[in-house]
Design a protein that fits this description.
alpha+beta, Nuclear Transport Factor 2, Chain: A, seven-stranded mixed beta sheet, 343 residues
């Protein structure tokens, strides 16, 4: 087993605990139509029609200003053309991870859209009253470290229906041999965070309160495919019932009577669809200062937590066993940090 990989995934498994439109105005002034009768009105209509046809003809001439505004000239650089609206990108549901700025609600899987169409769709989706806040930012990254650049897009929105809450949309786009693909999209707000690294690895975190933290790890590979690594929930000093999932089915057990003031329960899952997940359950004992004080005997019936969980049919995984599961998962999907020659 690669020692460096095992150290890496164990550190990742314990990371939470350690870090614990503008439009034209139309006048309604009746004076515009005064003294217009009979043949004068007919002549006026003919003149208007001729003017409209001439204007239409001019607007359709190649190189005209009107046409240039409606369709920016393509440069051949897909990333630059996407920024200006001269190129479109294909939406794929496989990498859609947004919770509020949900592209799947306004875009169709397999169809291509310009950046203005994507932003316009989100603004016209009346769920939260999203409005663009400032200019978009872009940077190039190298998913899979293969030397081929991808484009990372970032845009803030204000949710007017949520008291002006700021949301940020991220998208990774890849030139798939002359066609742009949206490989991944996710949003971030005050209760969640998203970090996208230069190698295409993605780290997300969120909070369901002071004691409940959620983490997930993923990446976009060199082929432009979104790969979910794993997700984790950390429940610090839990109380009441403990909820977990078995093959997508939610289950719970009571923690009443246990010393949960000195307990952290962690669950891990490998399914990107949260409602389909299968949880691997682990836990650690902590002191009054939240330092880990877990001992080997805490994974035996001598520990009331272990006894309660196992009596209810829950398999408890030790930290090293979790690290091994994460290592195997990383190797299976080709997570970038597994490329190590040390054995």
């Amino acid at each position: 087993m690669k020692k460096k990989i095992l150290t890496l995934v164990l550190s990742m498994a314990m990371a939470g605990t350690i870090l614990s439109g503008c439009g034209k105005e139309t006048s309604n002034d009746p004076s515009m139509f005064e003294n217009v009768t009979g043949s004068e009105n007919e002549n006026s209509s003919e003149t208007t029609k001729e003017t409209e046809e001439q204007s239409k003809s001019e607007s359709e001439e190649p190189g005209s200003d009107t046409k240039s505004q409606e369709a920016p000239a393509a440069t051949g650089d897909l990333y630059e053309d996407f920024k200006t609206g001269a190129a479109k990108a294909k939406f794929t549901k496989s990498g859609d991870r947004a919770s509020y700025l949900t592209l799947s609600e306004v875009l169709k899987d397999g169809e291509s859209y310009s950046i203005s169409e994507i932003v316009g769709g989100l603004e016209n989706n009346d769920s939260y009253g999203f409005k663009v806040n400032g200019d978009a930012t872009y940077r190039t990254i190298d998913c899979g470290n293969d030397g081929e650049k991808e484009l990372l897009y970032q845009q803030e929105f204000t949710a007017e229906e949520m008291g002006g809450e700021i949301f940020t949309l991220f998208m990774i786009l890849k030139d798939m041999g002359g066609e742009l693909k949206i490989c991944y999209d996710q949003d971030m707000w005050s209760r969640s965070d998203v970090t996208i690294n230069d190698d295409g690895t993605i780290y997300g975190s969120g909070s369901g309160g002071a004691a409940l933290h959620v983490y997930d790890f993923a990446f976009v590979d060199a082929k432009g495919d979104y790969q979910f690594y794993y997700g984790s929930e950390e429940n610090i000093t839990p109380f009441g019932d403990f909820y977990y999932n078995v093959n997508g089915e939610s289950k719970s057990i009571s923690l009443e009577g246990l010393d949960t003031d000195h307990l952290i329960i962690n669950t891990y899952y490998f399914e990107p669809e949260y409602e389909k997940r299968n949880d691997y359950v682990s836990y650690n004992m902590i002191d009054d200062n939240y330092n880990l004080v877990t001992k080997d005997e805490d994974y035996t019936d001598a520990n009331e937590v272990y006894k309660r969980l196992t009596e209810n049919g829950i398999k408890v995984y030790k930290n090293l066993e979790i690290a091994n599961l994460l290592h195997d998962r990383a190797v299976e999907i080709g997570y970038p940090d597994t490329s190590d020659g040390e054995n």
